[in-house]
Amino acid sequence: MEQSTEPLVIGVRFSKVGKIYHFVADTVTDIKVSDMVVVETSRGWQLGQVAQLIPDADPPPEGWKPIDRRATPRDLLMRQMWQMKEAEVVSNCRDRAEDLRLVGIKIVSAEYSFDGSRLTVLFSSETEEKYDLKSLRSDMQKMFAPSQVEMRQVGPRDVAKVMCGMGACGLETRCCCLFLTEFSSISIRMAKEQGISLTPTEITGMCGRLRCCLIYEYDTYVDARAKLPKRNKRVRTPQGEGKVVDIVPLRDAVIVDLPEVGYREFPGNEVQLVDGEGGQPSGADITGTQRPS
């Protein structure tokens, strides 16, 4: 029987809620989801967890990078040992930054590579100005040699993800540290499209940026609104002509102000624009319901 020559591609995650990176695992037999593996990355050797198996993956132009091996108990203990030192790094780095009077710099966390050869210190800035961190990095290099120290700036959303905690909506765990592996681009238009109040406290997350959840139902609202007449358009309804005063996208309906009748709600397929542009003519004679107070 002819054996398959297709490479076994796996998705590896390096943090509990992190982005998935793809590697080829042909050198390791019986690999399965939740296995721990050792791989070489642009940030040195890392220990990751297999999150998915991809049988028919299209290779990138540069090809797949192979995993080195399945992690051994010794590998797991080594990673745990370096993780226990990360809190000390953060404390020392904060103290040194204060000594150097680096006002506006916030040391967020520290990450050792799997074998301790690299140490990445994550920091954020309260302002847009650039800071000279050569002295701080040099001091950290001397303090934690022989690890190669790197200072890496992260944004407010990354800080919120690292710190975790309660969400602005009251959710016990923030979306970013619960299931979001990547941050999407969020705009104020998404809030407007969904009829959400533009009060800063209503649309701003714990990171101080627009809430990631504004994108969750955005496409649904856009698709629904595209099928309905816009506000202030004159339409024909089963009860006569009127003006659209509101739209209810999730019910596929509009609120129409009818002369001498008042507000009535009609399904989208029962209204038609007076000028004939857009909307579908109604084939049924169904009475609208009164707008709820």
The main sheet comes to: 6 strands, antiparallel
Instruction: Report the average pLDDT across residues.
Output: 87
Total helix count? Answer: 6
Could you name the ranges where pLDDT drops below 50 across 5 or more consecutive residues? 277-293
- Following the backbone from N to C, one meets helices and strands in this order, namely EEEEEHEEHEHHHHEEEEEE
- Sheet with most strands: strand arrangement: 13-9-10-11-12-14
Give the tags:
disordered C terminus; 6-stranded antiparallel beta sheet; 293 residues; GMP Synthetase, Chain A, domain 3; alpha+beta
Characterise the protein shown here.
The chain is α+β, with helices and mostly antiparallel strands. It has four domains: 63 residues, no CATH class; 78 residues, GMP Synthetase, Chain A, domain 3 (2-Layer Sandwich), CATH 3.30.300; 54 residues, no CATH class; 62 residues, SH3 type barrels, CATH 2.30.30. Helix content is 22%, strand content 28%. The chain is built from six helices and 14 strands. Strand 10 and strand 11 form a beta hairpin. The C terminus is likely disordered.
